Amino acid sequence: MAAPPPRIIAIYPGSFDPITNGHLDVIARGSRLAEKLIVAVLGNQAKQPFFRIQERVEMIQEAVHPYSNVEVDAFDGLLVDYASHRGANLILRGIRAVSDYEMELQMALMNRRLNPRLETVFLLASEEASFISSHLVREVASLGGDVSGLVPAAVAMRLKKRLAAKSV
Ligand code: PNS
Question: Is 110's C-beta closer than 6 angstroms to any atom of ligand 1?
Fold first, then answer.
């Protein structure tokens, strides 16, 4: 008799600077595919982030409150090492457009080379979220544009506060 399929412990890694409704769409759908989904926020970025790691984690924690099997954590170093440390067997990523594909392919193949037992699974972004990126959200907000509907309300508020503090 074939062995039962393994339980899915998934990691959804990213910068989440800040979390958008596009990320939340992947989290909502990913939470239905996995027994546990760990949203893992990268701490040691080369470039200076807009929000500190603790703030990014807090914003995600607030947003994922409705999902009982979703956990939020920060990580540094190699994703495959963090995944092993957490006992995860799947990496979850979202793809919006063909332009995302090249980088995602490179990362997935590199991660597979580093740990062939760790599978990467992609979810296609929902139509209404396929144009949203953290980068554009920061840009629009910093130029005074309306980002409601693109990020959770609490995130829009934090963006506003942070930008107001920066302009003083
Ligand atoms: O939201 P992002 O910036 O597209 O997320 C990129 C992320 C965090 C998934 C990626 O940079 C990553 O996994 N970094 C950890 C370092 C690592 O493992 N690098 C080698 C394999 S790609």
Answer: yes
